Amino acid sequence: xxxxxxxxxxxxxxxxxxxxxxxxxxxxxxxxxxxxxxxxxxxxxxxxxxxxxxxxxxxxxxxxxxxxxxxxxxxxxxxxxxxxxxxxxxxxxxxxxxxxxxxxxxxxxxxxxxxxxxxxxxxxxxxxxxxxxxxxxxxxxxxxxxxxxxxxxxxxxxxxxxxxxxxxxxxxxxxxxxxxxxxxxxxxxxxxxxxxxxxxxxxxxxxxxxxxxxxxxxxxxxxxxxxxxxxxxxxxxxxxxxxxxxxxxxxxxxxxxx
Length: 258
What we know:
The chain is mainly β. Helices cover 0% and strands 50% of the residues. It has no helices and 28 strands. It is elongated, with a radius of gyration of 19 Å. It has an 18-stranded parallel sheet that branches. Strands 2-5-8-11-14-17-20-23-25-27 form a ten-stranded parallel sheet, with no helix packed on it.
């Protein structure tokens, strides 16, 4: 099936935006930076964001919920050889996904720049229950920014040359279930909140592998619990109290301020 090419400025929908399994859809953000979808964005095929305007360096998708289904691709990176009829003026286009509810990825989401995902509910990077196949991927060439209070990851979340930054859109506890998953920022660090955090907010990080030069957790005066399989990199924690445990690697402790 030939690719379908749309100008984001001309897309109008009163409900969901759905892309079928055999469809390839290219959306050009050269004339407008954000695509607002009143309902859900559901991708089962191949969805590419591009910008023909060098002044537009970020493609923004706003929706009620965002679902990238198993086997689907959602990307601002064009395939090798490009796509006929598509001119991408921005080679490092960043991708922003905003959902009032949940962002659910069972396929592959990649960004040529930064990848920012904000969800009022959960960010889920996992296959559906009972499904088999390659693990889901959320990956950016630069930074991965996740804004939500609840993350479920049993796949790969990776910042190739930058860092992973995790925060909640509203000040709250943060729970990250990383069982069988991998958080990876081999050239950067993984931050949970930042040094400006005040108040009492708990942080829970469990399961899987956490690989970065450093893991920095800021909980104000809240409780910090880390119980993972593997944790590479220096661990810096700032909170009320902390429980830290790994099953494979030895902990390398940096700053501990409780």
